[in-house]
Write a structure and sequence with these properties.
mainly alpha
Length: about 270
């Protein structure tokens, strides 16, 4: 049978408690023991602390862990805010911006470049040259304004090439400007996205490496507290059973003493 008279003294209030009403410091984890020794520097592993005061230090540990997580999350949120505020660049629609800034000459250059690089232009140009050559060779309708070797046709071709080349170059320059603005816009967007992704990775690492272990540690502390309460309840039940048995024995003895003795028969 368990010795119900064995008691130890609590480190905090120096009162006598049963062994089931608390634990020794050597049975606690390091951070919780360190937290107790902050208030009692001379405490040793052989010292005893009752469950009532142990709950206080366990709650203090839980508060510290929760406060630490809040501080870390606040720092990460501030870092993300600084990243978003640091880059004032606003992404723009480059095509729309260029469309609204085009001049009449640039629109004409784009139209000429677009038509000059298409099959309708090539087919119509070849058709005109063939008709020009046939008319001046066969003297159709009595026309003979550019005899062989078609010097006037070569002049017109040279003029078309001389005019068309600068217009195409103007359109290409505008396309190059569009590509440059698009690349700058993409660079700033990618830079901002990279910074945000880096901060989000930091938050995910914090959740995986700190928040999850802390939650498990908090659950462990809660389970230890529930286990301590359950052991105390079981001990109280055993004590109640033990004392109820003694009370029944005492009542039986007292009842037997109070009953009068039966007279002897003659």
């Amino acid at each position: 049978m368990q010795n119900f008279t064995g008691t130890v003294h609590c480190l905090v209030d120096h009162k006598a408690y049963d062994l089931v009403d608390g634990v020794f410091l050597e049975d606690l984890d390091g951070p919780l023991t360190a937290l107790i020794r902050q208030d009692y520097p001379k405490a040793t592993n052989e010292d005893f602390i009752c469950s009532e005061h142990l709950v206080h230090y366990r709650l203090m540990k839980m508060d510290q862990m929760i406060a630490k997580d809040y501080r870390q999350n606040h720092k990460l949120n501030q870092k993300l805010t600084r990243v978003l505020e640091k880059d004032k660049y606003q992404p723009v629609d480059v095509r729309e911006q260029l469309e609204h800034s085009l001049t009449v000459g640039q629109r004409v250059a784009d139209a000429v470049a677009h038509f000059g690089g298409s099959w309708p232009f090539i087919i119509s140009f070849i058709t005109v040259m063939i008709l020009w050559i046939v008319i001046n060779t066969l003297h159709i309708f009595g026309a003979h304004f550019d005899p062989y070797p078609f010097i006037l046709l070569n002049l017109f071709l040279s003029m078309v090439a001389a005019i068309q080349a600068p217009l195409i170059m103007m359109s290409q320059n505008r396309s190059a400007e569009y590509d440059r603005m698009e690349s700058v816009n993409d660079y700033h967007v990618n830079l901002k996205s990279e910074e945000e992704i880096r901060v989000l990775h930091s938050k995910m690492d914090h959740v995986i490496q700190q928040d999850q272990p802390n939650m498990l540690q908090l659950q462990k502390i809660q389970m230890e507290m529930l286990g301590s309460i359950e052991s105390q309840v079981n001990e109280l039940r055993r004590l109640q059973t033990y004392f109820d048995g003694h009370v029944d024995v005492v009542d039986d003895v007292q009842t037997s003493k109070q009953q009068p003795a039966k007279p002897e028969s003659k």
